[in-house]
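Weekly modeling sync, notes
Attendees: S.R. (lead), two postdocs, one rotation student

Agenda item 3: backlog of single-chain predictions. S.R. asked that every request posted to the team notebook include the full sequence so nobody has to chase files. The rotation student volunteered to paste the first one in as an example of the format we agreed on. Action items at the bottom.

Example entry:
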Amino acid sequence: MEKKDITKSCQSIALFCAIAGLIVNILMLSCSGVPLSVPLGIFGIAFAILCKDEYGKMTKKGRTALILAIIALVFGFLLYYLTLITTTTMADPVKSKQVLEMLKTIKDQMPAEMQDMFANAGIPLE
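Predicted structure, as returned to the notebook:
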């Protein structure tokens, strides 16, 4: 296999991992509690670093994949952190009661038309 073929393969894999990481992050998919965008972002960064042309410089597609993979990785860690915070907050009986009271207050302040819209969509507000 030539260097050019390997570079094209690395570019494609890196871009796929980066874009898949962003999509998975938007869908909030996780595996064993860790967002899938974290390993996809790591693989995207690794393959993007390997995307060098014959002169040893990173290609444009490789740079794009690197940037997207870093964004996916950062958002993945952010999602993981927010999941941990939410889980620990709702596990505490005092804080969970406060959160539920706050949600009830928001529901009570919501216009009746919006409450009907949620009820018609099958989304319980209680």
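Discussion: group reviewed the output briefly. The chain is about 75% helix and 5% strand.
Action items: rotation student to repeat for the remaining queue; S.R. to check formatting next week.
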